[in-house]
UniProtKB/TrEMBL annotation:
Key words, A-Z: Hydrolase
MF term (GO), any: hydrolase activity
InterPro entries named in the record: AB_hydrolase_fold
Top-level lineage group: Bacteria
SUPFAM superfamilies referenced in this protein's UniProt entry, alphabetically: alpha/beta-Hydrolases
Record bears the keyword Hydrolase: yes
Organism of origin: Vicingus serpentipes
Protein name: Alpha/beta hydrolase
Protein backbone atom coordinates (compact mmCIF):
# COMPACT_ATOMS: atom_id res chain seq x y z
CA UNK A 1 0.00 0.00 0.00
CA UNK A 2 1.37 3.39 -1.00
CA UNK A 3 2.23 5.96 1.63
CA UNK A 4 -0.30 8.80 1.37
CA UNK A 5 0.75 12.43 1.10
CA UNK A 6 -2.17 14.70 1.97
CA UNK A 7 -1.89 17.95 0.03
CA UNK A 8 -3.53 21.25 0.96
CA UNK A 9 -3.61 24.07 -1.62
CA UNK A 10 -3.18 27.79 -1.06
CA UNK A 11 -5.95 30.24 -0.27
CA UNK A 12 -8.26 30.65 -3.24
CA UNK A 13 -6.75 27.61 -4.96
CA UNK A 14 -7.65 23.96 -5.32
CA UNK A 15 -5.86 20.74 -6.28
CA UNK A 16 -5.00 22.24 -9.67
CA UNK A 17 -2.31 24.23 -7.87
CA UNK A 18 -0.36 20.94 -7.82
CA UNK A 19 -0.77 20.38 -11.57
CA UNK A 20 2.99 20.64 -12.19
CA UNK A 21 3.96 18.23 -9.41
CA UNK A 22 5.07 14.82 -10.63
CA UNK A 23 4.11 11.49 -9.03
CA UNK A 24 6.56 10.09 -6.50
CA UNK A 25 7.21 6.35 -6.62
CA UNK A 26 5.74 4.59 -3.59
CA UNK A 27 3.50 7.50 -2.64
CA UNK A 28 -0.10 8.45 -3.33
CA UNK A 29 -1.26 12.05 -3.39
CA UNK A 30 -4.57 12.77 -1.65
CA UNK A 31 -5.83 16.30 -2.25
CA UNK A 32 -7.80 17.92 0.56
CA UNK A 33 -10.18 20.59 -0.64
CA UNK A 34 -10.99 23.62 1.47
CA UNK A 35 -14.00 22.90 3.66
CA UNK A 36 -16.65 25.61 3.67
CA UNK A 37 -18.13 25.00 7.11
CA UNK A 38 -15.93 27.80 8.44
CA UNK A 39 -18.60 30.06 9.94
CA UNK A 40 -18.32 28.49 13.38
CA UNK A 41 -14.55 28.18 13.17
CA UNK A 42 -12.48 31.19 14.15
CA UNK A 43 -8.83 30.16 13.89
CA UNK A 44 -6.46 28.22 11.65
CA UNK A 45 -5.87 25.85 14.56
CA UNK A 46 -9.60 25.08 14.81
CA UNK A 47 -9.77 24.71 11.04
CA UNK A 48 -6.90 22.22 11.12
CA UNK A 49 -8.70 20.25 13.82
CA UNK A 50 -11.74 19.91 11.54
CA UNK A 51 -9.60 19.02 8.52
CA UNK A 52 -7.74 16.36 10.51
CA UNK A 53 -10.92 14.26 10.45
CA UNK A 54 -10.35 13.68 6.73
CA UNK A 55 -6.92 12.13 7.25
CA UNK A 56 -6.50 8.38 7.73
CA UNK A 57 -4.11 8.04 10.65
CA UNK A 58 -4.32 4.23 10.76
CA UNK A 59 -1.29 4.08 8.50
CA UNK A 60 1.80 6.22 7.99
CA UNK A 61 1.13 9.48 6.15
CA UNK A 62 2.74 12.80 5.32
CA UNK A 63 1.53 16.35 4.71
CA UNK A 64 2.21 18.92 2.03
CA UNK A 65 0.88 22.47 1.83
CA UNK A 66 1.39 25.62 -0.21
CA UNK A 67 1.00 29.12 1.23
CA UNK A 68 -2.03 29.09 3.58
CA UNK A 69 -2.15 25.32 3.10
CA UNK A 70 1.32 25.14 4.64
CA UNK A 71 0.14 27.14 7.66
CA UNK A 72 -2.65 24.62 8.16
CA UNK A 73 -0.06 21.82 7.83
CA UNK A 74 1.92 23.46 10.61
CA UNK A 75 -1.16 23.36 12.83
CA UNK A 76 -1.93 19.76 11.81
CA UNK A 77 1.59 18.79 12.89
CA UNK A 78 0.56 19.58 16.48
CA UNK A 79 -2.64 17.53 16.22
CA UNK A 80 -1.51 14.46 14.28
CA UNK A 81 1.74 12.55 13.85
CA UNK A 82 2.71 12.79 10.16
CA UNK A 83 5.92 11.14 9.04
CA UNK A 84 7.00 14.15 7.00
CA UNK A 85 5.67 17.66 6.50
CA UNK A 86 6.61 19.79 3.52
CA UNK A 87 5.44 23.37 3.20
CA UNK A 88 6.10 25.49 0.13
CA UNK A 89 5.97 29.29 -0.13
CA UNK A 90 4.47 29.39 3.34
CA UNK A 91 5.09 30.16 7.01
CA UNK A 92 5.63 27.75 9.89
CA UNK A 93 4.51 30.20 12.60
CA UNK A 94 2.84 33.59 12.86
CA UNK A 95 6.28 35.03 13.61
CA UNK A 96 7.19 34.37 9.97
CA UNK A 97 4.36 36.54 8.65
CA UNK A 98 5.64 39.87 7.27
CA UNK A 99 5.31 43.07 9.28
CA UNK A 100 2.74 44.55 6.91
CA UNK A 101 0.34 41.72 7.80
CA UNK A 102 0.44 42.96 11.38
CA UNK A 103 -0.22 46.52 10.22
CA UNK A 104 -3.22 45.35 8.19
CA UNK A 105 -4.57 43.64 11.29
CA UNK A 106 -4.05 46.82 13.35
CA UNK A 107 -5.87 48.89 10.72
CA UNK A 108 -8.81 46.48 10.83
CA UNK A 109 -8.62 45.77 7.11
CA UNK A 110 -10.99 42.80 7.38
CA UNK A 111 -13.86 45.16 8.23
CA UNK A 112 -13.44 46.76 4.80
CA UNK A 113 -13.63 43.51 2.85
CA UNK A 114 -16.62 42.74 0.70
CA UNK A 115 -17.22 40.46 -2.27
CA UNK A 116 -16.72 43.23 -4.81
CA UNK A 117 -13.32 44.24 -3.42
CA UNK A 118 -12.16 40.63 -3.09
CA UNK A 119 -13.25 39.79 -6.64
CA UNK A 120 -11.38 42.84 -7.97
CA UNK A 121 -8.17 41.91 -6.13
CA UNK A 122 -8.33 38.29 -7.27
CA UNK A 123 -8.97 39.37 -10.84
CA UNK A 124 -5.93 41.64 -10.96
CA UNK A 125 -3.35 39.93 -8.77
CA UNK A 126 -1.62 37.24 -10.82
CA UNK A 127 1.53 39.27 -11.47
CA UNK A 128 1.90 40.06 -7.77
CA UNK A 129 1.92 36.35 -6.95
CA UNK A 130 4.62 35.50 -9.47
CA UNK A 131 5.58 34.57 -13.00
CA UNK A 132 3.19 32.38 -15.00
CA UNK A 133 2.95 31.31 -18.61
CA UNK A 134 -0.31 31.90 -20.48
CA UNK A 135 -1.75 28.50 -19.60
CA UNK A 136 -0.88 28.89 -15.93
CA UNK A 137 -2.31 32.42 -15.79
CA UNK A 138 -5.55 31.12 -17.33
CA UNK A 139 -5.70 28.41 -14.67
CA UNK A 140 -4.96 30.97 -11.94
CA UNK A 141 -7.95 33.04 -12.99
CA UNK A 142 -10.16 29.98 -13.37
CA UNK A 143 -9.46 29.09 -9.75
CA UNK A 144 -10.06 32.71 -8.72
CA UNK A 145 -13.41 32.72 -10.51
CA UNK A 146 -14.59 29.53 -8.80
CA UNK A 147 -13.51 30.45 -5.28
CA UNK A 148 -16.00 31.07 -2.47
CA UNK A 149 -15.53 34.77 -1.68
CA UNK A 150 -16.84 34.49 1.88
CA UNK A 151 -14.23 31.83 2.50
CA UNK A 152 -11.50 34.16 1.19
CA UNK A 153 -12.64 36.87 3.62
CA UNK A 154 -12.58 34.31 6.44
CA UNK A 155 -9.12 33.10 5.39
CA UNK A 156 -7.63 36.60 5.36
CA UNK A 157 -8.97 37.27 8.84
CA UNK A 158 -7.73 33.88 10.11
CA UNK A 159 -4.20 34.52 8.77
CA UNK A 160 -4.04 38.06 10.17
CA UNK A 161 -5.13 36.73 13.57
CA UNK A 162 -2.93 33.62 13.47
CA UNK A 163 -1.11 33.11 16.74
CA UNK A 164 1.41 30.29 16.55
CA UNK A 165 4.84 30.74 18.13
CA UNK A 166 6.45 27.31 17.72
CA UNK A 167 6.58 24.80 14.89
CA UNK A 168 7.26 21.10 14.56
CA UNK A 169 10.90 20.19 13.87
CA UNK A 170 9.58 17.76 11.24
CA UNK A 171 8.59 20.61 8.93
CA UNK A 172 10.67 20.97 5.77
CA UNK A 173 10.11 24.49 4.52
CA UNK A 174 10.83 25.29 0.86
CA UNK A 175 10.88 28.99 0.05
CA UNK A 176 11.96 31.27 -2.77
CA UNK A 177 14.16 34.33 -2.49
CA UNK A 178 11.79 36.47 -4.58
CA UNK A 179 8.52 35.70 -2.81
CA UNK A 180 6.69 39.03 -2.44
CA UNK A 181 3.61 37.59 -0.70
CA UNK A 182 5.58 35.98 2.15
CA UNK A 183 8.98 37.66 1.82
CA UNK A 184 12.10 35.55 2.13
CA UNK A 185 13.46 37.97 4.73
CA UNK A 186 10.63 37.02 7.12
CA UNK A 187 11.07 33.25 7.06
CA UNK A 188 13.66 30.65 7.99
CA UNK A 189 13.38 27.95 5.32
CA UNK A 190 15.02 24.55 5.23
CA UNK A 191 15.48 24.66 1.44
CA UNK A 192 16.07 27.88 -0.49
CA UNK A 193 15.03 28.27 -4.12
CA UNK A 194 17.00 31.06 -5.76
CA UNK A 195 14.77 33.56 -7.60
CA UNK A 196 11.72 31.56 -6.57
CA UNK A 197 8.51 33.56 -6.17
CA UNK A 198 5.16 32.69 -4.59
CA UNK A 199 4.13 30.69 -7.67
CA UNK A 200 7.35 28.71 -7.94
CA UNK A 201 5.34 25.49 -7.57
CA UNK A 202 4.42 26.25 -11.20
CA UNK A 203 7.23 28.30 -12.68
CA UNK A 204 10.06 26.38 -10.98
CA UNK A 205 8.36 23.00 -10.92
CA UNK A 206 11.47 21.17 -12.18
CA UNK A 207 13.52 22.11 -9.12
CA UNK A 208 10.52 21.69 -6.78
CA UNK A 209 9.93 18.16 -8.12
CA UNK A 210 13.62 17.36 -7.69
CA UNK A 211 13.57 18.56 -4.07
CA UNK A 212 10.38 16.65 -3.28
CA UNK A 213 11.84 13.42 -4.60
CA UNK A 214 14.97 13.98 -2.54
CA UNK A 215 12.80 14.46 0.55
CA UNK A 216 10.48 11.49 0.07
CA UNK A 217 12.61 8.89 -1.68
Amino acid sequence: MNHKIYRIPGMGADKRLYSEIEPIVGYEFVDLEWRLNYKNIKTLKDYALELSKEIDTSQAFSLMGVSMGGMVCSELADILNPEKIVIISSAKTSKELPAHFKRLKFLGITRLLNQEKIRYVLGNSSRFFGAMNNEQRKLFYEMAESVNLDFIAWSIKAILNWNKKKSSPKIIHIHGTRDFVLPFSSVNPSIIIEKGDHMMIWNKSAIINKKLKEIFI
